[in-house]
Structures are given as structure tokens and as C-alpha cells.
Amino acid sequence: MRNIYWGAYNAGKFHMKMIHRASCVEQLRFNESGHSCNVLRYDGEVEYELLYYKNEKGEIKMRKKRKSLTAIHRLDYEYGECYNYVDDRPVKHRDTIKEVDVMPYAQHKDDKHFTFLPSFNKKLFDDNNWVHLIEEWDTVKMAMTPYPFIGIPTQRECINGKRIVPHGDALKFLGESRNFVPYKENVLDSMISKLACFDKKLAGKRAFKITGRPTVFKDLYDAYKRHKDLVWLHLDDIVNEGRNIEYRLRELKIPYEYFNLDKDDYAVFGCTAQLPHDYTHPDWDLTNEKTYNNWSKLKRMAEEYISVRQLKDVRLDAKIKP
Prior knowledge:
Layout lengths: L1 E4 L7 H10 L4 E4 L5 E8 L2 E9 L5 E7 L36 H4 L35 E3 L12 H4 L7 H8 L1 E7 L3 H9 L4 H12 L8 H7 L1 H24 L5 E4 L28 H21 L13
Parallel strand pairs: 1-6, 1-7, 2-6, 7-8
Antiparallel strand pairs: 2-3, 3-4, 4-5
């Protein structure tokens, strides 16, 4: 049975990727900008990545690469976000990477097969010209948040409402699968983690649109003091992404079930590799005074947001005060 994991931003997708890779289970993943997707396939424990993209002419291409990690090393993980407001660990400098992350390919310059790097200028899923690939993906056992299958070209467009009519083959693919919508029962813990992902550069751009003046925020705390509504908007976007996924699944009459990230058993996905629930959760050392103080600030912000929005449950049927 194929599984579909409809995880929104910061909703356990990396955890799912890890246990499926370590179990050598074939999986399909989509780039959030809609420019590409990849399939991880296995020959024994040898992993191959198939990258799908559009070239400059708009033609759909595929490139195949052998990955070097062994199954056990696919469980290596170090927490890190683009921004880090809690402890002193170096952040992941994703803002130095292009809009579409091609770094895994750039690191293999000696590989003649990859001397030409895809530019990813063309979006792969702005139309339904890609649906013939579904037949190639029939052996996939896990697909993670396949937005194009429900007529949403990219993850980002899940928020702004852009929709296209999904192809019948895509709906058939979903209908023959078991669909899971993850959520966290511990709403406070969830909002704290999502505050740690606050994008200060995006907030600065949003502030400019509102005020007409260039705005630079030093960090999350600066944004909270000067423009609190932008911090709330950051959390609103993440909550609404998950709710929009649910709404779209219901709209297309695609049955799904919930997966409680705090309590449910990952064994339901049929992987041989198992990890603790909190394996990819922020592992801040709260015995450190500075770290605890920073975490406490995020906790107070999260508590205020939950109170303001009257947020008791992030799922679609829960009421949220606008």
C-alpha cells in the first residue's frame, strides 16, 4: 500500500524522509518552489536519486545520481534552521543558497554526469504536462506532500490560493493510496518550534509593503517588539497551510486520516527503521541559562499567540479567531 504524507511546513517531513531512507523505501518528494521533484530508489542498500525538472526549452528532463550514504548513516541528523533564536549553534545559512537548492549537485563537480547543473528556471508543475510521470512513480511507497496532485503548483501557493484542475491520473494515484495529515496535539510546543523558524528577511519585505519604508529586523524579538502582527502572520501562514491542505482534500473527496506527531506509532508507515518521536524535534539544552531564557521568550510569545487566536487545535474543524 502506498502512503501519502500531507505535511505542511515544519510538520515532520524530515523525520519521515529519514526513516524511509534508512529502511530503503522508495519515496517521492517535491521541491517547495515547484521547480523540481525527486525520487529516491534502492538497489539493495544502494540509494539512487532521480531528479525531475524542466530545461530552458520547457522540456521535462530526469537525471540520476548514486548517493554515497549507507543505510545507517541516513539516520544522522543535526537540528538547524535558517534562523536560530534559542541557542548558540551555527544556523543553516540557507539564504546563501539559490531560490532552488541545487547544492547537493554542486558538491559533485568531479562527476562528469553533473558538469552541467540544471538552472531550474522553469516551474515543473504550473500545468499538467508532467502527469505522464505518474506511471514512472507507480512503485513509490511514500509520497510527501505532493501538492501538484491536488492542483496546487507549489507549497508556497498553498497559502495564496492558486489552484488548477488536478488531472484524473493524479487523483487516481491518491485514491489508491493511504493519505495521512499530520498534526501536533501539543499546540504550545508546536508554536514554539515554528517561532524558531521565523524568517526575519521575509518579515522585512512584508513590513516594507505595509509601511513603504525599508525595514530590517535584527531578530525575532526585534520583530515582536516593533511589528508583532508580522510574527503572528508567520504563524498564521503555517497553520493555514495545513488547514488548506485538509480543505483541498475534502473538496476533491480524497479520504484521509490524522497522524498525531506526539503520540501515534510510526510503525503504521511500514518502515523497518524506527526513531523516537522527538528525534528531529529541536533539542535545545534548557539546563543552559541563556538557552532557557531565550526559549522562555518564545514560549511567552507562543502562549500569547494561542490566546489571541484562541487556538486549541490546528486541524481544519477547530475554530480559530482571526
